[in-house]
């Protein structure tokens, strides 16, 4: 015989699934692949396609007294194997031996069926013994076919080398025990250049009886052999191109996943994707052994590699698995809240029945615990739980233990989900737009999956929805999907809103951010496909002319309603941008509740009471929603951001001082440089720095709000400071025109004051200060040479005095007013939301 002992080559394990061994042609193909392979090889064989089902059906028929049906199954078993043997092996002693083995197996099967019929029940132990002949026959057929083709091959019965526990019907293998037996038995064969052919799926229990590893168990035999024998790779040859993004029978645009991490594949398997046995990854997790799921039809294709690598970072979600035929078992009762040990006892009771729980759901209220089990096991679970909680049920601590059959669990799996907020929201918005009713939700503690239960009839649609929401149909095509878009809804469409729309439409938006909606007092305009730049320009022109959105084709609605409508459409990563100067706190909280992130340039909602501030910015409450407000202080300057960076790196901020009002800075520095006060104010208005009524700035209220926002970073809980008001008392109530006209009255007074300070080497500045204990906003004189004294124009300056920057504060300075820079600050916040979500 032609040996091919390339023993320096690394060992591989190949498993052929039932479909790859369905008939003569398939087995010829498998044998051809094996024969062409050079290097040491272990082959694991499944039963011929459909044989395990056939054997189980026959045994079940026997159990319920339908002996003729059992006899027919035995006859089919015999005929299929005989046909294959005849088709593969030429007449002669080898064929005679094989046919004799097949006859014996069929006869024994028939006899066992008769015995089972007498007993009237099918014990798992007997069932295992019965079905084991499917794998044993196919492995012997493959061996004979290899030998016929002059390839050295030897059949090794798995019960000699695969050690398992005694859990018949779903045994778990022992890795070390198996290693001890398999090595001495297999290595010598490999060393001699012989292919070892092993039946998959079966092993032996401590008492020596035959066990099976559960349906699909040959996958596990293969990985177990790889681990025990120190293989470098395992190939599972299947009738699919590899592991796909979903079951192709359900989701027609399912695509091949080129590579998965061991852990991801383990989750896909655990959640019932039939392509891999649920525990197949256990023997090789954490090793360097790679697993390849490959197409038996296109062996030249690489299939899916399962390894320790990470790839496809663009896809936080990679696969969707569905397991049907589940029941949700629920233990419920108001009395459970805060009671220790209910969960633990629930699972002890379930475990005692050896039920396999696939997903655990706990209501956040703690008033119920739910989990799924296969429907057929629900009754047993309920009975055992009712017994375990007999006392609690009688005292009313627990209301009831119930089972709801007809459920499916859909699992959404991917490594990139960990730490990527917003995934759950995307999953559930995809489901809600599909009208799918989610009965329960569980996020795996690994954050590598989100699973949810739906009624079985909605499972396929749910999987399709999620599949398309994450663009999984593009995963194998080499072309990564564009990062998901961010859809912006503008609250207010004044100068800043327009500048922002402009920047989004221009290069700064990078095409990934779109404006989908505008809201004003009167109503809203919404287009889920995005408002074109032209439309936005038009709208802005008309708004300038004083029109309301409802007069420009918008729908009348209260803002909260409008947001609810928008969020119910398929908006992607929706963000509300508040560029009003109103009290919008309630509205923004509603937006967070509707799944929007919030970016503010509007200071008012952050400058009210501590409680309303905290309820807005304490993001955890809004499950993964974020609130950003960099543009509220210093326009586009990174002030809030710097604060957070300092704190994150372990520094402690002691105080923040600065000049944070562009308008006041402009006016006061112009006056200090010799301009009349009235003229400086007029210029600030004309240049667009000031609010339309400059008294809003001159009153210092705006600066005081900024100071408060800074102080609250340091957890100052008090109210805003009473600011120094630069508007003379007598002019505060006048109409704007009259105010402007009479402003010259105060020019002289300002001139004197400026001169007095100048003689002392000082200039006037409007300065805010914030500490954890207090906050102020004052007109004050500072040395000309100080950083604030040296500021000119509308520049802002903020100085952080911290533990690290104690003697010399950390200073941030730059343009701090104007619609352009404010819009830039907002756009920065929008991009930072995108960045934190796409990781
Ligand atoms: P084997 O022949 O090795 O036992 P299986 O028949 O057990 O293979 O597994 C392949 C089958 O799994 C496919 O025919 C397919 O219908 C189903 N399947 C379910 N989910 C997936 C998935 N995510 N990727 C590929 N196949 C899947
Ligand atoms: N033949 C067994 C089954 O059908 C094991 C396997 O195919 O992996 O479940
Ligand atoms: Mg299988």
What do these coordinates show?
The chain is of the alpha/beta class. Helix content is 40%, strand content 19%. The protein is built from 27 helices and 28 strands. Strand 25 and strand 26 form a beta hairpin. The model is unreliable at 1-6 and 478-482 (pLDDT under 50). The chain binds adenosine-5'-diphosphate (ADP), aspartic acid and magnesium ion.
Walk me through the topology.
Layout (H helix, E strand, L loop, with lengths): L11 E5 L7 H13 L4 E5 L5 H13 L3 H22 L4 H27 L4 H25 L4 E3 L2 H4 L13 H17 L3 E5 L2 E3 L5 E3 L5 H12 L3 E6 L20 E3 H9 L19 E6 L8 E4 L11 E14 L9 H11 L6 E4 L5 E7 H14 L1 H6 L4 E14 L9 H11 L6 E4 L5 E7 H14 L16 E6 L3 H11 L7 E7 L3 E4 L6 H12 L10 E2 L2 H10 L5 E5 L6 H9 L3 E4 L9 H8 L9 E2 L10 H10 L4 E7 L2 H11 L4 H10 L8 H4 L2 H13 L22 H7 L4 H13 L2 E9 L4 E9 L11 E8 L7 E6 L3 H19 L2
Parallel strand pairs: 1-2, 1-7, 2-4, 3-4, 7-9, 8-10, 17-18, 17-21, 21-22, 22-23
Antiparallel strand pairs: 5-6, 9-10, 11-13, 11-14, 12-13, 14-16, 15-16, 18-19, 19-20, 24-25, 24-27, 25-26, 27-28
Bound molecules: adenosine-5'-diphosphate (ADP), aspartic acid and magnesium ion (MG).
